[in-house]
Design brief:
Layout (H helix, E strand, L loop, with lengths): L3 E3 L27 E6 L6 E5 L6 E5 L7 E2 L7 E6 L6 E5 L8 E5 L7 E4 L5 E4 L10 E6 L6 E7 L4 E8 L3 E5 L5 E6 L6 E6 L5 E2 L10 E7 L4 E6 L7 E6 L6 E4 L4 E8 L5 E8 L3 E8 L5 E4 L6 E7 L5 E8 L2 E9 L5 E3 L16 E6 L5 E7 L7 E7 L13 H8 L3 E6 L8 H4 L7 H17 L3 E11 L1 H12 L6 E5 L5 H7 L2 H11 L6 H6 L13 E6 L7 H13 L4 E6 L9 H19 L3
Helix pairs in contact: 1-9
Length: 615
């Protein structure tokens, strides 16, 4: 009881062992994932992020038939990369130690001339799309230790020149025209964002879609030589759509919308004539379409290389779309799609040996919340008939979404005879503005009852056996797991909390200031809503939590700081509730290193197997 398991990969630390956490056979974990592909202006070279070395690093392949090479970018995890339109630079972001603070660096594609350009000290930095044309500049935004003191600017990486765009909190610089006259800057907290067009000649700015609490405008690009602005928005509608206006103002017209899908992401070609759109449909699967911006013609790409697509980028002429694609039996890899023929081919490849595909064919199940709201979730069914042990897995965000992607943990649990159900409770993305905002602030009580409704559905449908149900989640899902275990202790036999918040007051006090500021629209104001946040914090109902709990956290986590996990463990140890603690000393909010992920999957699977399928 109370044994603390430390990360075996950090500082030579020894790992305490017990019967409860005895290693099983190596779990079925794919050894490589590739994402964030970006191509050179001529389309021959590709840079991308890959963990093929054991942790996320920057790789480049300089010719179609060449061998990818890892670029020396230091020891910190790389999260994204973008090739400049003039071909001279790579911009990439790193997260020191896996923390929530990001740094932006630039370097030459062949290596060299490497420097950090944003994200110094306690700042966190992001970058947008390189300007198009013969001289590329990079839109950058920084969040300061005082979140209201952030700034956005346009960076000339060669000269080190910075042109100011905006000051304030919660900024993101998105795009700028090739003549460096106009820029796009995003403002605002989660689910309540707006975009402004900045005139660099006089410093004025206007919002094509006015700021409103009833909707969000969050992605924007210039097109057609900088005369047109394309934006993703759900203002005035429930499902996000693509709209357009002119750079100098004017009417906002709908360009692409669907009544059965939400626009998830889009990108514009280097020549500004073509856009590629990713749609979120059918509970989380992806569809893609190509838009001729001038004519408005929209074509669907019928044959996609995976169930879920992300990280899209078009070639300069719009004929080649790079995406990250994955499916339940296919890990994340980069594919090129011919936007004319629709044909796809892999750009990167996964490991030579991937686990058998048999256990991972998720089924989309629909059920009703206690107030009648329509909900859904993905069921990964173990073999056998009749009710059996089930893990209820709750995703993070809460605006994230559980989708049919490659999930090594789900695969491992199914092979061990545990069914996994991953519901998208209210507050999840992918189902429209009303749904994603249905858990805001005081509405969170209804989201908590959605967990109970999911359990009721599993039992009534003959899927789960009462008394053999576990609950697990990461980040917000970890918080919701702790809430469910303490509010509904009779429903769950075991729990796993991965970097979840146990006390919303201490979360607000210890997280990064810009994360706290962005969270107010979702969770509530820590001063104005202090009583509500106390009522919603599981630490104040911890006496009712009696299921054995595995707690997992990263020492470098500055999003949900380690203090949250330490409070849970101390409280349960004091109450003599069975509790184990896995601390990854070299990880942050996400487990990024391949060896750590394998250890995580094995440890969680052992814990759940012990408590849900006892011998």
């Amino acid at each position: 009881m109370g044994m603390r398991t430390v990360n075996p990969m950090a500082d030579g630390a020894a790992v305490p062992t017990s019967a409860a956490l005895a290693p099983a056979a190596q779990p079925a974990v794919a050894t490589t994932a590739n994402w964030s592909a970006t191509q050179s202006p001529d389309g021959r070279a590709v840079a991308f992020v890959s963990d093929r070395s054991g942790e996320p690093r920057l790789w480049v392949r300089h010719s179609p038939d060449g061998v990818a090479q890892m670029l020396g970018v230091g020891s910190h995890p790389v999260t994204s990369v973008a090739w400049s339109s003039d071909g001279e630079w790579l911009a990439y972001a790193v997260t020191p130690g896996g923390a929530a603070r990001s740094e932006v660096w630039v370097m030459r594609p062949a290596g060299g001339d490497q420097r950090r350009v944003a994200g110094f000290g306690n700042c966190s930095a992001t970058f947008g799309s390189w300007t198009r044309g013969s001289t590329s500049w990079l839109p950058v935004a920084e969040s300061a230790s005082q979140w209201t003191e952030g700034n956005a600017y346009l960076l000339d990486p060669a000269a080190g020149l910075r042109v100011p765009l905006a000051r304030g909190g919660l900024l993101r610089a998105l795009d700028a025209t090739s003549d460096h006259r106009w820029a796009l800057v995003r403002h605002g907290p989660r689910t309540a964002r707006w975009v402004e067009v900045v005139d660099l000649a006089d410093g004025t700015s206007t919002a094509p879609i006015p700021r409103t609490a009833a909707g969000s405008t969050d992605i924007a690009h210039f097109a057609l030589g900088g005369t047109t602005v394309l934006l993703r928005t759900d203002v005035g509608r429930d499902l996000a759509a693509l709209v357009a206006t002119t750079t100098t103002g004017g009417d906002v017209a709908v360009v692409a919308e669907r009544d059965d899908a939400e626009l998830e992401d889009f990108t514009v070609s280097g020549d500004g004539r073509t856009a590629a759109l990713l749609w979120n449909v059918d509970g989380g699967r992806s569809e893609a379409s190509v838009l001729d911006i001038a004519s408005g013609e929209l074509r669907r790409l019928a044959r996609l290389p995976g169930d879920v697509l992300s990280w899209c980028e078009l070639s300069a002429d719009g004929t080649r779309l790079l995406v990250t694609a994955q499916a339940p039996s296919r890990p994340r890899n980069i594919w090129a799609i011919d936007t004319i023929t629709g044909a796809s081919q892999p750009v990167t490849y996964g490991p030579p040996r991937v686990v058998p595909a048999a256990p991972v064919s998720p089924e989309l199940h629909r059920f009703a919340a206690e107030d009648g709201l329509a909900l859904s979730g993905w069921l990964y069914r173990a073999s056998g008939t009749g009710p059996g042990p089930v893990l209820l897995y709750l995703h993070g965000g809460p605006e994230a979404q559980d989708r049919p992607v490659f999930n090594p943990l789900y695969r491992e649990l199914v092979t061990r005879g545990l069914t996994v159900f991953a519901p998208n409770v209210r507050g999840s993305s992918g189902f429209g503005r009303t749904f994603v905002n249905a858990d805001n602030v005081s509405k969170r009580f209804a989201a908590i009852t959605d967990v109970r409704a999911a359990v009721g559905y599993l039992v009534d449908a003959g899927i789960a056996e009462a008394g053999r149900i576990g609950c697990m989640g990461r980040s917000y899902g970890g918080y919701l797991t702790l809430v469910a275990l303490s509010w509904y202790p009779d429903l769950f036999a075991v729990g796993v909390d991965v970097c979840g918040m146990v006390d919303l007051e201490t979360f607000y006090s210890h997280t990064e200031p810009w994360i706290a500021a962005a969270a107010i629209s979702k969770y509530g104001d820590p001063e104005r809503d202090a009583e509500l946040l106390r009522e919603l914090s599981p630490i104040h109902r911890i006496d009712d939590l009696r299921a054995p709990l595995l707690v997992v956290h990263g020492a470098h986590d500055t999003n949900v700081p380690l203090h949250e996990a330490e409070q849970v463990v101390a409280a349960l140890e004091a109450r003599r509730v069975p509790c184990e603690f896995v601390l990854f000393r070299d990880e942050g909010h996400s487990i990024l290193k391949t060896a750590n992920r394998a250890f995580f999957v094995r440890t969680v699977a052992d814990w759940l197997t012990q408590h849900l399928t006892p011998a």
